[in-house]
Amino acid sequence: MLEIAHTAHDPKGLQRAQALLWLSAGEDATEVAPRLFVTPRTVSRWRNRLQHQPHLAMSARLGDSPRRGRPRRAGGGIETLRAQVLEEDPRPRGSRSTVWTAALLRHALRDVHQSEVSPRRVSRALAR
Q: Which string of DSSP letters, residue by residue, matches 23-37?
C-alpha cells in the first residue's frame, strides 16, 4: 500500500491509498475523512472495497469504479457533417465570408443537415 501511495499517478487513487494507510495505522474514518475532504462514509466504502475485492490488483481496487450512463461522444456525428460542409464555399449560402466561421457552420448544420449543435461544439469542431 505504501508503494502505491508513493507511485500513484491518479490523484483519486493516491487519496484512497492515503486514507487506507491511515486506517491501517489505527485511525478512525471520522478522523481521516476531514483531511481528505470526504465523508466518513466514503472512507468506509474505500476500506470495504479494498477488503472485498482481493482478486483485483491493488491499483484496480484503488481506482474509480466503472460508471453507468451514456459515454462521451468526443465529436461523434458532427465530424462527418463538418467535413461535408467545409468542402463547400460559404458564399453560395448567402455569406460574404470566404471562410467558414463558427456561426456560419452552425447555421449550415442546422439548415442543411437539420442538426442543432451548440456554438461551443461547433467551435471545437472547427479547431480540430
A: HHTT--HHHHHHHHT
The pLDDT value recorded for residue 43 is 93
Confirm if 93 and 104 have CB atoms less than 8 A apart.
yes
CA of residue 54 relative to chain centroid, distance: 27
List Cβ neighbours of 99 (8 Å cut-off, separation of 6 or more).
90
Buried b (16+ CB within 10 A) or exposed e, 22-38: bbeeeeebeebbeeeeb
The dihedrals phi and psi of 65, each to the nearest 5 degrees, come to -75, 155
Q: pLDDT tens digit string along 8-62?
A: 667 888 888 889 899 999 999 999 999 999 999 999 998 998 888 888 877 777 7
pTM of the model: 0.48
Per-residue pLDDT reduced to its tens digit, 109-119: 777 667 677 77
CB atoms under 10 Å from CB of 9, counted, come to 7
Q: What span, in angstroms and rounded, lies between the C-alpha atoms of 90 and 26? A: 69
